[in-house]
Design brief:
This protein has five helices and six strands, in the order αααβαββαβββ. By secondary structure, the chain is α+β, with helices and mostly antiparallel strands.
Length: 234
Amino acid sequence: MSQASSSSSSCCAYFESAQEERPPFWHRAGIVLAVGGLHLLGLLLAFGELRQATPREFSPVPSVRVLQLAPREPPIEEARTPTVPSRPARVRPAAVPPAPRKAAVPVPLSSAAPALAAPPAPAVAAQSAAVPLVEASPPPLIAARFDVDYLHNPKPVYPATSRRLNEQGKVVLRVRVSAQGLPLSVEVKQSSGFPRLDEAARTAVEGWRFIPARQGSQMVDSAVLVPLQFTLDS
């Protein structure tokens, strides 16, 4: 027991002495950093010397030039003289003496070429065109009628008030008559001086029948004047 306790106490003393002799952590970290920095510095120096030993050569920038070629001249052909075939020599005929000319015979004037015919006279159409055309006049207009017995047109009614007041006079109406004989419009052209008499005449004529106006064989519209007399004696 005494030996075991002595050995354990010696071991503890050894570890304590070893811990007291070991340098602190920051001292060791500084040593490591210093060593690493020296190695890094050596590498940088070696890399710099290598770059200085082998400088980089820059390749020149290529440039392109367009060369214009001289036009190619066509080959000169030697002028060839055409070979003309030889023609046989012509033998000229012997000269023949000209025949004697005949004397010119005078031609009489009667046998000369006939004179040109005179141009024909202009047609008579221009004279006929100058004559003015006479248009046919339209047939006369036969006026419309209202006084035929078979029409049975009643007389206007004499107003009782006008009789009592002794109103009398003449009314002239202007009536527009259609081609069928019916009154298209009735207006007072000349008044009797009394509105009641004028209105009585206009009311009566609006129901009348007429013989329409005629132009040739055709019935046409026309205007006619209708006089009406209001008297107390009738």
